[in-house]
Design a protein that fits this description.
By secondary structure, the protein is mainly alpha-helical. It has 3 helices and 2 strands; from the N terminus they run αααββ.
């Protein structure tokens, strides 16, 4: 229940940010190894919001696992992530 509450609050927060800002947030997480429920809720909300906006996140998300191994960028149409 607490996890769902965290997710909803974070999802509401990231919904108000630009797609470019969400990509910047993703890139801040690249290479970090710590894992906590708050980070999991943030990362899931971030990816879900990008998907809701029609962004192809397949470069970093396979439907189950999010990869933070490499930085990403948006294409010109702001609808697909590419690894840098």
């Amino acid at each position: 229940m607490a996890r769902t509450y965290k997710y909803r609050n974070i999802k509401n927060s990231v919904n108000h940010q630009s797609t470019e800002a969400l990509v910047e947030q993703f890139n801040v997480q690249v290479g970090k190894r710590c894992w906590a429920s708050a980070r999991a809720a943030h990362d899931t909300a971030l990816i879900d919001t990008l998907i809701d906006r029609g962004v192809d996140v397949s470069a970093v998300y396979d439907g189950e696992t999010i990869s933070f191994k490499e930085h990403v960028m948006l294409n010109e149409d702001l609808n697909k992530l590419f690894l840098l």
